[in-house]
């Protein structure tokens, strides 16, 4: 990252790891290539995504690109290492015969990063994030963050952070940012049209703004429902409850009156808080990248937000 400034938009690579359905090598390569052609320079990945497959595919696409590595911002995650075996509960398809296990020890953090660098084919990442330390908070604070600070000092990573699907622990980390060396948080699925938990007054986003912590927002579609609010829509990586599908349908109806697709509104929504530095959106094909790019370039009428706030019943702080 140039001066540790995260690009405003990025591509999330979980779909390239076969999230929900297998993605071919050709489609994965085309997805990244199209994103680069569209001006995307930030790519977020993790060992968890396709159990190493997303990192491998991203690395191959970067090497095939005419855009220099120095022009790209790459974030990956630590806190899981890959070991031989099959995970019967995985939501990824077409993946290698390895499974992720949590390891927030100093050796585990270094091992995870070293293996990610190998899969990515690079000697550094611009941002390393602790990934889902929900049940490992004490070790993450005492050991993992200290290890990341050392790796940052060594130049292997540019900035350090934490990425989660919950706001309580992220808020605690952000409140101690200066003491623990925290640069960034990535909050997934908690600052969206449907779930605005991160934006509650005095909560995560306000804490980050007060403590100089950059915020990356992911999961803007809440894992699918805000892109396609169909009967089989997913929410938080599971079947979407009927009540949320009904709310998403009402939002889609409101968006149509403004000639704005629901997915477009979902991509723009996170920018309504001053703390947000970047929004990452996943894609599994070149066509999805193009659709997301069109959405990014769409102007949103201010009146739409007021209507959606009323529909949701949770006004934006």
Automatic annotation (TrEMBL):
InterPro entries, sorted: AKR (IPR020471), FDH-like (IPR044477), NAD(P)_OxRdtase_dom_sf (IPR036812), NADP_OxRdtase_dom (IPR023210)
GO MF term list: oxidoreductase activity
Residue intervals of the NADP-dependent oxidoreductase domain: 10-311
Pfam families tied to this protein: Aldo_ket_red
GO cellular-component term (any): cytosol
Protein name: Unannotated protein
Naturally occurring in which organism (per UniProt): freshwater metagenome
């Amino acid at each position: 990252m140039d001066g540790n400034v995260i690009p405003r938009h990025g591509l999330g690579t979980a779909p390239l790891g076969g999230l929900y359905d297998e993605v071919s090598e050709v489609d994965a390569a085309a997805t990244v290539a199209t994103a680069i052609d569209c001006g995307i320079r930030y790519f977020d990945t993790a060992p968890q995504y396709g159990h190493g497959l997303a990192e491998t595919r991203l690395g191959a696409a970067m090497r095939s690109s005419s855009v220099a590595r120095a022009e790209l911002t790459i974030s990956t995650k630590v806190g899981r290492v890959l070991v031989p075996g099959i995970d019967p509960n995985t939501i990824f398809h077409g993946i290698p015969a390895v499974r992720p296990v949590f390891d927030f020890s100093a050796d585990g953090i270094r091992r995870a990063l070293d293996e990610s660098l190998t899969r990515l084919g690079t000697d550094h990442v611009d941002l390393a994030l602790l990934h889902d330390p929900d049940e490992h908070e004490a070790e993450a604070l005492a050991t993992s963050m200290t290890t990341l600070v050392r790796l940052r000092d060594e130049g292997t990573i540019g900035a350090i952070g934490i990425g989660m699907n919950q706001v309580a622990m992220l808020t605690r980390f952000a409140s101690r940012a200066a003491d623990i060396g925290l640069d960034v948080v990535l909050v997934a699925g908690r600052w969206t049209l449907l779930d605005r938990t991160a934006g509650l007054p005095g909560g995560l986003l306000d804490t980050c703004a007060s403590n100089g912590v950059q915020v990356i927002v992911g999961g803007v579609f809440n894992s699918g429902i805000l892109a396609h609010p169909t009967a089989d829509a997913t929410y938080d990586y599971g079947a979407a409850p009927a009540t949320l599908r009904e709310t998403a349908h009402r939002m889609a109806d409101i968006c149509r009156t403004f000639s704005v697709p629901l997915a477009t509104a979902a991509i723009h929504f996170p920018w309504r808080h001053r703390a947000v530095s970047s929004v990452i959106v996943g894609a599994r094909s070149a066509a999805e990248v193009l659709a997301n790019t069109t959405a990014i370039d769409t102007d949103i009428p201010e009146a739409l937000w007021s209507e959606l706030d009323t529909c949701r019943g949770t006004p934006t702080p």
